[in-house]
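Sample A.
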Amino acid sequence: MMIIFPAIDILDGNCVRLIQGDYNQESIYGDSPVAMAQKWEQLGAQYIHIVDLNGAKSGESINKDIIHDIAQTVNVPVQVGGGIRTLETIKGYVDSGVSRVIIGTAAITDKEFLREAVKTYGDKVAVSVDARNGYVATDGWTDTSDVKATDLLKELEAIGVKTIVYTDIAKDGMLQGPNLEEQRAINEATSIDVIASGGVTTKEDVDSLRELNVYGAIIGKALYDGKLDFSDVVGGN
């Protein structure tokens, strides 16, 4: 059964959404990420996805206190990404009740750190693979590398990573549907659990991802803009 992850993106303490990761194109949806997390839990969320956007940009866990509060307040598991670049940061999140931490840029630029993190925290560590036209992007999507996403997956498997969040940047926040071909190719290329992210807009998008047998799907902007009703997609197989 595919898990639907409602996304809470935190910037300067507010719950926001960006378009294609552009910090100049933000919409603020509320000043209490904790209340937002409680809302998604009440609507039936099995798992909540949180991004520290300040952290993604600066490498510092600016909003960690708010994220700790969310983990302590809701009764469903929480996964967190954005600026997680040290074992100390991971420990802080895990100790505060976060179920899974998502390493982004550092997983690509510092394989030794990733190995240590996986060795220490096992399946509590996931990796965010953000791609543009099949190539990995880093540093809050400002840079595109010459590393193919499929090649990176082989490395991650060898290190022992159990879960990835795969985002097609071109689709993110655009409300145009996910890149199903890309998501299928990634899911079939690896034994790692794949959480699809980027562009999930309609119930049909969710159904299409379910048919690909991905482990999970993250939904953000479509929920906040009212394009998609969470209760319509949270059930199903």
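Sample B.
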Amino acid sequence: MPDYHERVRFDCSDADEFERGIAAGVEATGAGELIVLPTDTVYGIGADAFSPPAVRRMLAAKGRGRNMPPPVLVSAPSTMRALAVDVPAWASRMLEALWPGSLTVVCYQQPSLTWDLGETRGTVAIRMPDDERALALLKRTGPLAVSSANTTGASPAENVDDAESMFGDDVSVYLDGGSTAGSRPSTILDITSTTPRVLRDGGVELETLHTYNNTIEPYA
């Protein structure tokens, strides 16, 4: 396998190279290194969610502090039970229907988790992306802390060239999935209070969310 202190790039359109890229991504994140991967929204920069040094390295690469903790990407709705508590029944039904998809849910984290994503105040933002390449990686790595692949003040990368120009050798493995479908981010829904509310408008409309809970407040 390559030295993960030197960046490598894999073409996801080639089946053999994609498999090598997934294996490299698994090994890199397991070693506490950073990767860039395509998602159904924009490219993401990712790290092992359970490695505090790796998460700190990711935030530093983006030029962010602990006050901006990253969301966590998962490969299946059932993973919510391992990461979150007090998820209401309506939210579970919603995620079974809308995941994978462009919806991030902020919920209370399992208190037993030994991770440090930043100043989360006991919460975690979780999403299952609708991208076969990202899901193939997540099934092998487990939950990853993934934020949009951009440095502070720059637009999120919609192709791997943009990501590589921003992060360079800070990232060990780049998975090249071509151009992403678009720059619209995921909808962020906070379900930690009695009245859930949208924290960011995105790919899932409020009208759709209201079919699962009509008390959800819109983004303000």
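B remarks: The longest strand covers residues 103-109. Residues 68 and 118 are 7 Å apart (CA to CA).
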